[in-house]
């Protein structure tokens, strides 16, 4: 059974870089969309972007200038980098798997990790 | 970007009721529409994919319908564990945008 687990610092200073990793266990990373989503406190879900087969990426236009998603299938993990963070980037960050067999629905989610941007 | 508009934003209902949540896309998305359930402090869970298909383990009281721009999620005979927030999401074209969510509360 595939499981995802986010990891990274819980506190990031304004203007610095947020870096998170999602570890994939119990299955292959091949042929899925590995996706990052975030949720600001008390708010809805925001799609950040995905990486497919450790190669093709797609990002939300509102974050595109600051975000990079990378992957390493040999190590079974993928990562999120968000540069020049502000308080508006404070959120729970989730990683999830998009399954092409389910029309790219996000069928498996990590538990989420809270990131606070503050000095 | 494709905008997803959910309604209502909140809903009060009783155990045993039938409720329907709607989701409208700003352009046609065929059946690339997914529904997620989120309980407080938990990650979202896939409830319905491809507009009307249920993943294994999802109770049959949940159903989805629609295609093109208009979609709905219906919960028959509400159970106590169904009181949660629900989000639609389009996976037709990146960015795979979410609706703003519907909070289902106990009346």
Order of strands, widest sheet of chain B: 2-9-8-4-5
Through-space gap between termini of chain A: 39 Å
Uncertain residue ranges of chain A: none
**Which stretches of chain B are poorly predicted, pLDDT < 50 over at least 5 residues?**
none
Assign an overall shape of chain A. globular
Instruction: Count interface residues per chain for the largest interface.
Output: A-B, 23 and 26 residues
- Round the Cα radius of gyration of chain B to an integer and report it: 13 Å
Number of strands of chain B: 9
The residue fraction in helices of chain B comes out at: under 10%
Helix content of chain A: under 10%
The chain-level mean pLDDT of chain A equals 96
The assigned structural class of chain A equals: mainly beta
Largest sheet of chain B, described in full?
5 strands, mixed
- Terminal Cα span of chain B: 36 Å
Q: Mean of the pLDDT scores of chain B?
A: 97
The DSSP helix count of chain B reads: 0
| Structural class designation of chain B | mainly beta
Number of helical segments with 4 or more residues of chain A: 0
Main beta sheet of chain A, described? 7 strands, mixed
Secondary-structure element order of chain B, as H and E? EEEEEEEEE
Features:
heterodimer, A: 119 residues, mainly beta, 11 strands, 0% helix, globular, B: 107 residues, five-stranded mixed beta sheet, four-stranded antiparallel beta sheet, 45% strand
